Amino acid sequence: MQPDYSILFRDNPDFYPSWEEFYNFDLSYPENILNLIEQASVLPHDFYRIVAAYTLMPSGLTKRVPCLFFYGASGSGKTTISKLIAKIHGVTPIASSTTYAAIRNILRSNRKIYVSTPHPSDPSKPPVSRLIDANTILVWEDIDSDTFRRNPNIYVLFKVGYDKETDTVVISGKEIGTIEKFRCFAHNVLSSIHPIHTMGEYKELRRRLLVIPTKKLDDIDAELLDINSINWDGFSTKFNEFWSLDQAEIFLTIRSSLSNLKGLTSQQKTISLDLIATGVSTGIWSDEIEAVQELKECFEWINKDVKTEASNLEKLLSEFVLDIEKTAKEANVTPCIYTQQLRTIIKAWYEKSWLLEKPSHKETRLIMNKLNYRSNSKGQWSKIF
Fold it and tell me: 320 and 302 in one domain?
């Protein structure tokens, strides 16, 4: 009979040290969360406090939140930091292959909990049980570029689940001709090697992403925290212990003061208010000015990355034209490109996500003119020598 190996880990903490050995009890809970994130990851930009604030957000209080997206090459630590967030909340990461029905069940079981509260009309009577919004989070493992194509329903969850007021999804019921409604609001953490934030087909989701780039760890000498070798039992209870009624009141007071927040676009402000209120109320940021400055830097990086990808049209057209000219030279004919041929190749680039948007005719014409090509009434592009 196989022995119970768990006895070795339970009786010898050297084999499986407790999280308490890495927790500084002289610091606050939010300070420890920030320290753990810094010890477990190396980010190319100083976005650690953004990650900490997101991790600390209480979904039972928030209204609109972005999706936290860790983007980087294989071995850059994005999965590690996602797993750490899962440990902090005591949840199991969701594989990208998980079915829509299973995800729906996870949402339904995690979003609401029963709590015992004083009797609303007579405190002398026994407490009553109430169903309330639970503090929870969904952590997704390695989303690939085809995940949403294979299962568009999951894409809908991400697209509408950021706003608690408009997160109702209607699906077919178990009985023929019936429908079911369920609410999909959730804090979502996802990671991928694919630049989902630059893909044109996911334009709606892109506006709701908070992208955190990660850095490949091959050449880094720093010794990072091995979260897989730590016993995290009991750690997740500290989250709800921290979010007491007093702490929740501080959060709500700060959020209500952010109505005239300056420095972010309307869309950025919409998805950032709860994040900023969390960061300021927990002491991650000293005030909203500091929070806005760091978030602006993050959004600027995202926009820069998107624009870099957007410049692909000129690069792709240049390479396409060179191939046409090479073929024409070998055949000893004048280079000629048919308008329909050009439209077809541009459509293919867009469908492969090599372009963020379908370019307008004007954009295409300006680049082709720059490459010394002009169109004629016969539907052809000819080179001007």
Answer: no
> Over the range 306-328, which residues count as b (16 or more CB within 10 Å of their CB) and which as e?
beebeeebbebbeebbeebeeee
pLDDT per residue of the chain (385 residues) written in tens, 0 to 9: 788 777 766 656 667 789 999 999 999 999 999 999 999 998 988 999 999 999 999 999 999 999 999 998 888 889 999 999 999 999 999 988 888 888 888 888 887 777 777 777 777 788 877 777 778 899 998 887 788 888 888 888 888 899 999 988 887 777 777 788 888 899 999 999 888 887 777 878 888 999 999 887 665 566 788 999 899 999 999 999 999 999 999 999 999 999 888 899 999 999 999 999 999 999 999 999 999 999 999 998 887 766 665 567 888 899 899 999 989 888 898 899 999 999 999 888 877 656 756 788 888 998 899 999 999 888 899 988 7
Residue-number span of the structural domain to which 176 is assigned: 13-308
Q: Quick one: how many helices (H) and strands (E) in the chain?
A: 15, 12
Cα separation, 130 vs 122, in Å, equals 15
Does residue 5 lie in a domain region? no
